[in-house]
Amino acid sequence: MGEDHKIAIFIGLVIALHLLILISVREARSPELERKEVVHLRDVPEMATRSDLKVVILGVDGITWDVILPMVDKGELPTIKRLMDGGAHGKLISQTPCLSPAIWTSIATGKSREKHRIQDFIVKEAGSSKSNLISSNLRKEPALWNIISQWSGKRVGVVNWWATWPAEEVRGFVVSQRFAYRIKGTVYPSELGERLSLLSEETADRMFRQIAPFQIDPNFRELPRSSSEYVDNYRLYFLKSYFREDANACSIGLSLFREFQPDLFAIYFKGTDIASHYFWRHLDTPSLEENLHPASREQRRFGSIITSYYRWIDRIIGEFIRLMDDSTVLFILSDHGFGLDTLDPKAIDLNLLLAKMGLLVHASEEVDWSRVSAEEEYFFSDHRQIDWANTVVYDSSTPWDYKRRLYLNLQGREPQGMVKQADYEKVLEEVTHRLQQLTTASGKRLFKKVLHRLSGEGEGMEADLMLVFNNQASVDDSLLMSPQPWACSNFIFSRGMSGEHYAREEGVIIVWGNGILRNHPIRQARIYDIAPTILYLLGLPSGMDMDGDVLTEIMEPSLIRQHSVAYVSSYRTPSWTSDRKPVTSGVDEELKGKLKALGYIK
């Protein structure tokens, strides 16, 4: 036997021995992992008794490790530092597009947006140009609070979670995200809502000064909308409205958690997302790859807003921990991260351009500004109603989207359609050609692509046309139009935001408490894994139709040995399959105004 052959055999034996050691270690650590126990739904109530753990979920929209880690290094987030050292932590893989209602519903159900059907902030009415806000009854899959209420003797509590209005009947309580509006269905049980109180305006203002330590000009709406003073005050006003919601959610959540000590408690905070959208470029703890502008008056004034909000959240986490007992596991989650928007962000009021081209007509040139909320005022130049009887095509997209979806005002499909079915293809070609020819004085095409649904590339599109905006088109440029050029500033506007989800799509996961490994890095966690993991911790089986897995990697071997990972075929009973219409309320238009101001809807 040659020397080389002996060496090869030796190396092979070493590799085989190494593999055997790895397998034995894995078996010793988690002997139940390879067993898939499938049980019947009728067995779930008894299985739920095998765990006396409780779970608390704090959902914090848009927080990112890019901010957390530098602040932890500086000692500015002592509670989060404690959780990282004493628990498991890592990135949470999300889904795109990063739309909060869809992602937070996926976290609560363990299923994709295609399954649970909460896909956006709004849902378009069939046969209408009108859209309604999503409501809880549109969800096609049971959430954690539904599963636990129906299939165990455990109690749940939910505060301010996305898509929870109207509040559902549960074994416990639900305070929906519309609790501050005091409308029907805000709280379950309804008698609980009667004794919940909101913070006074003075208290909320005092708390907000921890985030932004200066006053908002109460008369800022009288300032020129193009002035920096208006923009600064507007951004602070808008952030303050969301902080007030967070502060009220926190106050109510702490009170109810202390009183009822539910087995599952979930609460959601939104303001960190708003602060990051508006003030990211002023961030005083930038991530390494982002080169922000040198210190300026704005940065000196607003540079601490995001980090101050993180510090407030850190203190809130500490308050909940003080109310938790030793049998509780705490989840800190975010649906996505944030980063600097490098795409030269612009808002495009495309319907104004279509009106200039004679393809859309407004009912009036006047705007009744008293009917326009402050949330909408700055970011939309055109609040006029459309004259549908004389309109050929309209834009239905959000103003920040560089991919725009246009619809012909087609008879038989649109409620006031004026384009005849027989003329559809001809009109579609004409509109496409006119949009393709739009060029700026500097020689740039306004749109990189103009596709229609009958073309090769556009086949299968839902919209009639898809426009891809050329982001190099400048606000300072002008369009070559007859009889004279038309300034781009008439329909292209500064977005007023500098932080975006796409720049850091993965979120944050921190898990801490009884049975969780200490200082353990989480290698691969997805939003779909949260629901199965929480069900496991509470003693319940996971659904085989869920898109996630139980994160056993974060658990102590002693916890895993207590019971195997079990499954039911599905928690989705026939009651979840029926078609439902969205529930509407008297505050929908006000809520839409906030979403419009963020560019989430049009």
How is this structure best summarized?
The chain has 602 residues and is of the alpha/beta class. It is 33% helix and 16% strand.
Features:
alpha/beta, four-stranded antiparallel beta sheet, globular, 602 residues, 19 helices, nine-stranded mixed beta sheet
Task: Write a structural description.
With 602 residues, this protein is of the alpha/beta class. It is built from 19 helices and 24 strands. A hairpin with a 6-residue loop joins strand 17 (478-479) and strand 18. It is globular and about 80 Å long.
Q: Let me know the number of strands.
A: 24
Structural class category: alpha/beta
- Mean pLDDT, to the nearest integer, reads 84
Percent helix: 25-40%
The largest sheet is: 9 strands, mixed
Round the Cα radius of gyration to an integer and report it.
27 Å
Identify low-pLDDT runs.
Answer: 18-34, 286-294, 372-381
| Residue fraction in strands | 15-25%
Question: What does the secondary structure layout of this molecule look like, with pairings?
Answer:
Elements: H1 3-29, E1 37-38, H2 44-47, E2 54-60, H3 65-73, H4 78-86, E3 88-93, H5 100-109, H6 113-116, E4 122-124, E5 131-133, H7 144-151, E6 156-159, E7 172-175, E8 187-188, H8 190-193, H9 201-208, H10 228-260, E9 264-269, H11 271-279, H12 297-302, H13 305-323, E10 328-333, E11 339-340, E12 346-348, H14 350-356, H15 374-377, E13 393-395, E14 403-408, H16 424-436, E15 447-452, E16 465-469, E17 478-479, E18 486-487, E19 492-494, E20 499-500, E21 507-513, E22 520-526, H17 530-537, E23 542-543, H18 557-562, E24 566-568, H19 588-597
Parallel strand pairs: 1-24, 2-9, 2-10, 3-22, 6-7, 6-9, 23-24
Antiparallel strand pairs: 3-21, 4-5, 7-8, 10-21, 11-20, 12-19, 13-14, 14-16, 15-16, 17-18
